[in-house]
Amino acid sequence: MIGGGTVGVVIKASIGAVGALVMAPAALSAIGFGSAGIAAGSTAAGMMSGAAVANGGGVAAGSLVAVLQSAGAAGLSLGAKAAVAVVGGAVGSAWTVLSSWRGP
């Protein structure tokens, strides 16, 4: 078992960062954002439909759907990878704090 303390926080933050980097492409694919486009009948298709309705028929450039489709089709950019790693590391650090918390 990985304990608390500084070493535990660093280890769990690292696990979170690496795990997030590995899982992000799989998660995008699982919800329908793939290299061949948005999969019919998927969560991504529903998101795209909702975005198109909200924007009068088109999906706005830079919108969440557009960014996720770009990442699904071409992979994550360096900046996106850094952001995913930071979030994953924060989750890993929170895991350490929450798993060692004993409550009032």
UniProtKB/TrEMBL annotation:
Gene3D superfamilies, A to Z: 6.10.110.10
Family annotation (InterPro entries): IFI6/IFI27-like, IFI6/IFI27-like_sf
Principal place of residence: membrane
Source organism, top-level taxon: Eukaryota
Assigned protein family: Belongs to the IFI6/IFI27 family.
Lineage of the species this protein comes from: Eukaryota, Metazoa, Chordata, Craniata, Vertebrata
Recorded topology in the membrane: Multi-pass membrane protein
Biological processes per GO annotation: intrinsic apoptotic signaling pathway; release of cytochrome c from mitochondria
Keyword Phosphoprotein: no
Gene Ontology cellular component terms for the protein in this record: mitochondrial membrane
Localization per Swiss-Prot or TrEMBL: Membrane
Annotated transmembrane regions: 15-40, 52-72, 78-98
Keyword vocabulary terms for this entry: Membrane, Transmembrane, Transmembrane helix
Record protein name field: Interferon alpha-inducible protein 27-like protein 2A
